[in-house]
Amino acid sequence: MMDDRLFRSTMGKFATGVTVITTEVDGKAHGMTANAFMSVSLNPKLVLISIGEKARMLDRIHQSGTFAVNILSAEQKEVSMLFAGQIKEEKKVEFEYIQGVPTVKGALANVVCKVHSSQVAGDHTLFIGEVQDIVLQDGTPLTFFEGKYGRLAEEQLI
Questions:
Q1: Which ranges carry the Flavin reductase like domain (predicted)?
Q2: DSSP alpha helices (H): ranges in the chain?
Q3: Hey, CA dihedral for 136, 141, 145, 147, is it positive or negative?
Q4: What domains can you pick out in the chain, each with its CATH number?
Q5: CB neighbourhood size of 148 (10 A)
Q6: Partners of 24 in the beta sheet?
Q7: Buried b (16+ CB within 10 A) or exposed e, 70-101
Q8: CA 23, CA 103: separation in Å to the nearest integer?
Q9: Percent of the chain at pLDDT exceeding 90
Q10: pLDDT digit string, tens, across residues 40-86
Q11: CA quadruple 122, 114, 131, 108: dihedral positive or negative?
């Protein structure tokens, strides 16, 4: 049987961007850091997120039927750490609302979705979201590789 640590270490070799998934339930905004995000389809415009069975966000997305994927900029490492539970002290987070869904202010992109479908896969639920709206900004993305935050190297002019 394959060792869990080997599997996690191997998956950590895939460099990703960092997102915060947000939703609203009973008038309260909620968020969680995630790097399991991908585009699925252009027509219709669909994206996929993967939420662990122990995450509080799982029931919240089932309840709300909506979520936003907020692609973080290199300057938003603290935002990621906050929503990953790595920062324990209370910090006020400013949300902006797009079509009634809370989004992270200053993110490179806010992708607002309604749940199109969901599928339980092992110890996670895959939510496919139909994109309702997008807000896009220029900037450098926050990256994640081998369990560490980073940023893309600046392009060298030749």
A1: 11-151
A2: 4-11, 56-64, 77-83
A3: negative
A4: 4-151 (2.30.110.10)
A5: 8
A6: 29
A7: bbbbbebbebbebbeeeeeeeeeeebeebeeb
A8: 8
A9: 84
A10: 999 999 999 999 999 999 999 999 999 999 999 999 999 999 999 99
A11: negative
